Amino acid sequence: MYRKKSSYYNLPGNFIIRLMVGLTFSSEGVQKFLFPDVIGAGRFAKIGIPYPQFFGPFVGVVEITCGFLLIIGLMTRLASVPLLIVILTAIYASKIPILENKGFWAAVHEGRADFCMLMGLLFLLIYGAGKYSADSIFAGHEKKRA
After folding, report:
1. Over the chain, what HEC string results?
2. Which of 22, 29, 129, 144 is placed for a possible disulfide with 73 were both Cys, Cβ 3.0 to 4.6 Å?
3. pLDDT by residue (tens digit) across 88-108?
C-alpha cells in the first residue's frame, strides 16, 4: 500500500537539522574522551552525576553513535530518544542549578545550546529524517520490492 509522503518530508530542513544536532552531539561525545577531566567524567563528578567514571564514557559513546546515526539519517527517530535522555539530564543537572542560584537570564544564557538541541531532537522525533537520508533510501527499497 502506498502512502503519500507529507509535505515536510521533502524539505531539506530535515537534513540541516539532522546535521546540526548530529554533529553537535558527535563532537561532544568525542570531547568526553579527549578531555575527560573537563567534559567527561570530571564534569559529571562536579555536577553530581553518580558513577562518573562509568557514565562519562558511556554518554560519550551514546553521543557519538546516535549523533552519527542522525548525520546519515539512519534510525533517526530511534536515535533521537537516547539523546533526548542525555540532553534532559544535562539540563536538569547543570542548568536548573544555574536557574536556582543565578536567576532566569543566566540560565537562559547558559542553556541556549541545550535548548536548541532539545528542540532539534523533538523535531526529528516528530518528523523523522526526511527525504535525504538512509531511512529514505531503505524505505524506497521496501516499496520497490513489494
Report:
1. CCCCCCHHHHCCHHHHHHHHHHHHHHHHHHHHHHCCCCCCHHHHHHHCCCCHHHHHHHHHHHHHHHHHHHHHCCCHHHHHHHHHHHHHHHHHHHHHHHHHHHCHHHHHHHCHHHHHHHHHHHHHHHHCCCCCCHHHHHHHHHHHHC
2. 129
3. 999 999 999 999 999 999 999
